[in-house]
Each structure stands twice: as C-alpha cells, then as structure tokens.
Amino acid sequence: MGIRSKVKDFIDIQYKLPKGLIGAYIGEKMVAQHKPETLWTIELLDIQPGEKVLELGCGSGYAMKLILEINKEIEVVGVDLSPVMIRSAAIRNKKTVQKEKAKLRLGNVKSLDFKDKQYEKLYSIHTLYFWEDLSATVKEIFRVLKPGGACVLTFSNGKDNEEWDEINRMIEHQLMPLMKETEFAGTELLKGPNSRGFHTAAVTGKKKL
Q: Are 207 and 185 in contact (CB under 8 A)?
C-alpha cells in the first residue's frame, strides 16, 4: 500500500470516528463544508415549540447550535461515537448544555440508550455511510420516535456529473425498504442543495400514529 492510499485510509477513518487533534480539526472542517445541507435538513424537520429532537452523529454540534438558536423552547440531544466530537459539541453548545436544552451522549446508533417513544423529531447528516447495522439502526430510530414523529436522514450521493451508484443502491434497495417494512409512513427520497459540488439528498419518513 502506497503513502497516498495510507493517507486516504487514515482520513476516511477519521471521518468515521474522529480521534485526537486531527479528529477535532476534521470536525470543525465539516462545519464549514456541510452548512448548505445542514440548513436544509433543519428546514425539513419543521421543529415546533416544546418538541424533543435527537441527532444521530452530532459531530461538533453545529446543527444542534443552529436549531437551538432558532427554537428556544425545545430540547436537542446529540449522540456520537467519538469522545472528541462530544467534547467539541459541548464546547460549541456550552450555554445551552448548562441550561439542559442541549444534551450529549456517547453512543452507537445501532443500540440507542433511550426509552421508547421519546422524540418528535430525529435527524442525521452524513452519517448513514458509516452505520454498521442498517436494519438495527432503522429499528432504533422507529423505537425512539413518538407516534407521528418524523426523521430526516441526509447524505451525499454524487459529485458534479458523477453519481455514486453504491450509495444510491444502498438507499433504494436497503434503507427505504427497511423503513417501509418498519412501518414508517410516507417514506420519501428528496433532492437537496448542491454543496461544494456534492449532490445532497434526504430520506424522510414519519412513524405511524
């Protein structure tokens, strides 16, 4: 394996599970990179006063911060696999963490440490590529949502004139069928804004009442 391949593999691992100073830097880099799709995801969520919101893969807490700036009377909980990202998110959301409007948990999306039917809204931005067990994670999303609760799962599926067939196949043949089997209502695939040339999209669904 050449140096270039080793560097690429190292960076890919850092995007999946940021560690150390490089991981913290990548987390901050992603804040700037992902702003268009983050704003779009928040718009799709249509968060209402008093709702509880869960983010899977909160990273350095930028989306949480934006949501809490717009919606003062809600609670947002962020889950991430990386202790480095949890620390960064805590720093970015220091005031709302102190007020217990923002809460952070270290954890794995395939086994969430929450009771059933806790959240009205759930979202995830650029994490589903890294989910180790898609079926288990979809079941966990369904479990922690309240009846009528909605989820928005945002991702990239291409860049410029290139379509990423592997991602598109996973969405079409795995994720969306799993959501329908799990009795999400109105599951849709939506096209989002381009971000630095990357195509963005989201799968949305509502838990049946």
A: yes
